[in-house]
């Protein structure tokens, strides 16, 4: 028996797009049909009105006196505006025009028409006409009423002139509505893309599959499978690194003690044993750095125990821990604290600053100066360690925080992991780690820019 809330069935992106576009098209088509019907009704009303006027004129002309000898022209009634239907007629008897309107040809539109009434197309005097022919009941004469084809085209042009702007507006409205509806339907895709784009190199959490369209669901599931496999591989690698480093610490400590014992037993080999103890110390430092990275890598920013950290006690402890070595090498340690506290994880902040001071002491020659400063800088609080030592060229600065990277020609030992640890701690705090010039335009300066603490609610 299944328990829990059943997951909603995935919906079809294609069907929603189709429904949205068809619905918008039908609604706007009905609106445009109403506009077209109103315009057509208005135009045809004017056409019918003109036809009635033309019929009145024809009746008036048909009732005038005419005789077989003269070719009479029926005058047009005066009208203040141009006519929509410019009709011309002829009264024809035995192939001869007895009476006609002024714009009608002098010869019949149609000669030898076989039927009592009907339509015919005629080409007279270089003009095309559509002609209606009707004979009287006795067959004495026939009336031919014609309209130039060009006049009909003008009516269509007038209709097109009246319609193009509304039709263009309806099409633009259709495009806008379809754009908005499709954008609304595709919103889940944008949310999914944003969730994937927001992932960092350490964020391998699953992309939510709920609410995804049916066409996109297989892609999200495949991506989640890849993320799960990557997470498993990284966890295995981190566990191996942590376990290996942890297991190495005990034998290295034992080896260090054995070397010390042998050095006491064989003072004549003190130089060799001293070099061996230095190598063991370097390996021990490497193991400690690997353990530190193994603990930092799986952490997320939300897992930090951040709180206000008083800087003065922290700096005093760090200076005390490095005072002996600095005095032995004649290196001056100075501080400049313009802020009292920062918002950070206390343990991690101490690890980061200790690594920065270790690096500065290791690479600075005797007689150098090292300054640890805490400053307020705009929207950030900057903690910087700067020296006036030999410094690092700009190309190497860009690689200083890479794991196991060491600047060649320094003649100093080290694991190449100290600044990598500082960078990881900066990432967990949402801080920016930068490298620049040190004191008096010489040496190296390492800055850690921490964001201001959010005000307590």
Report what the structure shows:
The structure is a single chain. With 457 residues, the protein is α+β, with helices and mostly antiparallel strands. It folds into three domains: 9-185, no CATH class; 217-294, Helix Hairpins; 300-451, Histidine kinase-like ATPase, C-terminal domain (Heat Shock Protein 90). The chain has nine helices and 13 strands. The chain has helices spanning 13-62, 149-185, 187-197, 217-265, 270-296, 311-329, 346-363, 394-397, 418-428; strands spanning 72-74, 87-93, 96-101, 117-124, 127-135, 142-148, 307-310, 332-337, 341-344, 369-377, 380-387, 432-437, 444-451. The strands form three sheets. A six-stranded mixed beta sheet has the order 1-3-2-6-5-4. Strands 8-10-11-13-12 form a five-stranded mixed beta sheet. The protein has a two-stranded antiparallel ribbon with strand order 7-9. A hairpin with a 2-residue loop joins β4 (117-124) and β5. α4 runs antiparallel to α5 (270-296). The longest helix is centred in the N-terminal third of the chain and has 50 residues, at 13-62. It is rod-shaped and about 155 Å long. The two termini are 47 Å apart. The model is unreliable at 63-83 (pLDDT under 50).
């Amino acid at each position: 028996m299944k328990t829990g809330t059943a997951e909603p069935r995935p919906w079809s992106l294609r069907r929603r797009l189709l429904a949205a576009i068809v619905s918008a098209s039908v609604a706007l088509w009905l609106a445009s049909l109403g506009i077209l019907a109103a315009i057509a009704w208005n135009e045809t009303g004017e056409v019918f009105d003109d036809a009635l006027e033309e019929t009145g004129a024809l009746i008036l002309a048909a009732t005038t006196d005419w005789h077989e000898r003269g070719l009479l022209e029926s005058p047009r009634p005066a009208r203040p505006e141009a006519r929509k239907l410019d009709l011309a007629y002829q009264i024809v008897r035995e192939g001869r025009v007895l009476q006609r309107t002024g714009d009608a040809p002098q010869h019949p539109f149609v000669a030898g028409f076989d039927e009592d009434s009907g339509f015919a197309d005629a080409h007279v005097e270089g003009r095309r006409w559509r002609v209606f022919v009707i004979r009287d009941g006795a067959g004495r004469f026939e009336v031919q009423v014609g309209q130039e084809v060009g006049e009909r085209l003008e009516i269509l042009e007038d209709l097109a002139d009246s319609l193009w702007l509304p039709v263009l507006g309806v099409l633009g409205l259709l495009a806008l509505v379809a754009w908005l509806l499709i954008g609304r339907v595709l919103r889940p895709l944008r949310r999914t893309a944003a969730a994937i784009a927001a992932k960092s190199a350490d964020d391998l959490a699953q992309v939510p599959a709920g609410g995804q369209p049916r066409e996109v669901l297989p892609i999200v599931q495949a991506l989640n499978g890849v993320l799960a496999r990557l997470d498993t591989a990284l966890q295995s690698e981190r566990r191996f690194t942590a376990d290996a480093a942890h297991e190495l610490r005990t034998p290295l400590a034992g080896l260090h003690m054995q070397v010390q014992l042998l050095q006491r037993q064989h003072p004549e080999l003190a130089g060799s044993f001293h070099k061996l103890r230095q190598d063991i110390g370097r390996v021990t430092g490497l193991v400690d750095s690997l353990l530190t990275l193994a603990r930092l890598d799986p952490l997320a920013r939300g897992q930090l125990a951040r709180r206000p950290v008083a800087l003065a006690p922290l700096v005093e402890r760090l200076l005390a821990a490095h005072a002996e070595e600095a005095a032995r090498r004649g290196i001056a340690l100075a501080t400049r604290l313009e802020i009292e506290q920062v918002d950070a994880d206390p343990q991690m902040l101490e690890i980061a600053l200790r690594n920065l001071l270790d690096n500065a002491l290791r690479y600075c020659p005797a007689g150098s100066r090292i300054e640890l400063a805490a400053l307020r800088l705009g929207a950030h609080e900057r903690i910087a360690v700067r020296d006036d030592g030999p410094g690092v060229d700009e190309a190497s600065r860009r690689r200083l925080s890479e794991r196991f990277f060491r600047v060649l020609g320094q003649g100093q030992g080290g694991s190449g992991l100290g600044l990598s640890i500082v960078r990881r701690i900066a990432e967990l705090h949402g801080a920016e780690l930068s490298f620049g010039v040190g004191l008096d335009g010489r040496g190296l300066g390492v800055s850690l820019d921490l964001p201001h603490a959010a005000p307590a609610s």
